[in-house]
Amino acid sequence: MSPTTTLADARPETGYSRAKIANLPGGAFIEGQWQTADLTVEVRDPEDGLLLGRVCTSTPQDVRRAIAHIHRHLQIQEWPLRSRREALEKAALLLGEQSARFAGIIAAESSKTITEAEREVRRCIETLRLSAAASNELTGETLGFEDSMAGGNKIGWYSRKPVGIVAAITPFNDPLNLVAHKLGPALIGGNGVVLKPSTRTPLTGLAFVRLLLEAGVPAGRLAAIVTGPGVSTALVTDQQVDLISFTGGPATADRIAAAAGSRKILSELGGNNATIVCADADAQAAAKAIVAGAFGVAGQNCLSVQRVYVHISLFEEILEQVTIGTKSLTTGPKMDRATDVGPLISDDEAKRVEEWVEEAKAAGARIHAGGRRRGTFYEPTVLTDVPSECRVIREEVFGPVVSLIPFIEIADAIHDANNTAYGLQAGVFTQSVDTALNIADRLDVGAVVINETSDVRIDSMPFGGFKKSGVGREGVRYAVHEMTEPKSTIINLAEQPRWQSLGLTEKS
Hints:
The structure is a single chain. The protein is an alpha/beta fold and 508 residues long. It is 37% helix and 21% strand. It has 17 helices and 26 strands. A 7-stranded mixed β-sheet has the order 16-19-20-15-14-22-23, sandwiched between helices. It is globular, with a radius of gyration of 25 Å.
C-alpha cells in the first residue's frame, strides 16, 4: 500500500474499516472549539507506516488560551455533582456502543493487537463507571470538636473540593484507559482538564474527548492539545494549572517537576519488575504466567515482567517451559486475531531493544528464544546469564525481553529484586503462605502479587510504586482524593445554656 494511504482505506479481512476508525472533527480542542487549521502532524500506523490522520501543531499561546478558557468556565459555570456523575455514566454507555470503533483506533495507531485493544476498551468502560461511582468519595465527614480540648462551642465538617485545573499528560501504550484514569477522576471531582496525549497515539485521546462532550461534559471543562514547539513547557508552567498528572519516564518527570515549581504533581513512571519463583512453586503455572506477563503489548507495559529469579531446583524446568511458551507466540500483524505480539511503537524503539539485547549478548548472555528484529517488530526474547550491569537488567526495557536468573537463598533473590531504581510491582510464586507474606513484606514495591507475576492491575486499586516508579497513586477513588482537597467549614456557636440551645424556656 502507498505510504499516503489514509483512514478511509479498509482492511476487510479484519472486520475493521479505516472509515470507521477516525472521522474526528479536528486535531485539537481549544476554547470549546475543534481546531481544523494547522493539521500538520501526521499519525501513522507503526506496523506499516500507513497514514491514519493528522493533528494540530499548537503554540504556547494556544495552551494559554485553552487554560484561560477553562479557568473562566470554572469561575462562572456550576456543574453539579449529580450532573458530573450522569455524564460519566453516559460516557460509559456510549463507549460500550462505540467499542468496535475505539478498539480499531487503538490498534491502528498503537502497538496493541486488536484483541489487546478490545480488552483496553472494556477496561476503560469500567474506569468510567468507577469514576461515576466515586461521587461517593466527595461527601467528607464531621470534625471532632466535641472530643478536643480546643473544641469549645464549635461544630464543623469538611467536604472535598476540586483543585482547579488538571494537566493530564499521557503515554502511548494505553492510549484510552490511561487517559480515562486521569480525566474520569478529575471530572467527577469538579475540575477542568487539559489533556496532552502522546504524539504517537493522539487519535484515541481526541476521540475520547469527543465522546465525553457527547455524554454531557461541558465544553468549558475540557481541552486537548497534542504537540507543537513550547507546548509542553507552556502547559506545566502556567500558573493557572493546579495539578499535573503525568505518566511516562523519570527523566521527563524530573524536567516537569523542575519547570512546574511548587505545585501538586502526580506521576506514574514505570518499573523494572521482578518475579520470584520459589522452590515449592507450581512450575507450569509460573512459566505460563511469565510468558503472558513479559510479552503483552510487545513488552511495552509498565507492569511487564522483566526479571525472573528462579530457585535453582526449578531453574532448568522453568527455563524450558518459558522458552517453549515464548517460541509458540505468533509475532505479526496487529489486526490478525492469531497474533500474540505486535510491533513496537517505532523503528527507534525496536532498534533500542535490539541494541540492549546485543549488549547483553556481548557481555556473555545466552539467547534461548527470539533476539531478532524485523523493522518495528522484535521477537519475544528469553535471556539467561545476563550480567547485572547490563541495561536489560538495570533499566526498564519496555520491550519483549525477559531475563531468567537462578538463586539459592530467598534472601538473595529479594535483595536482587530490590536492587533497582524502580519499585512498581512484583510477583511471587510459592505454595507457602508464610513464605509469600515474608517476601511480600520485604519487597520495596507498590504491590506484590502472590502466585502471579507483576502484570496484574484492576482499575479500582491504588496504583503506583516506590522510588523512581512515581509519586502519588492512581486508581479511580485514590486519584479522586489526589485531585480534590478537603475544605473545612467551622461554626462557632454562641455561648448559651443547654436548655436555651434546645429552644426551651427556663420554666419548661
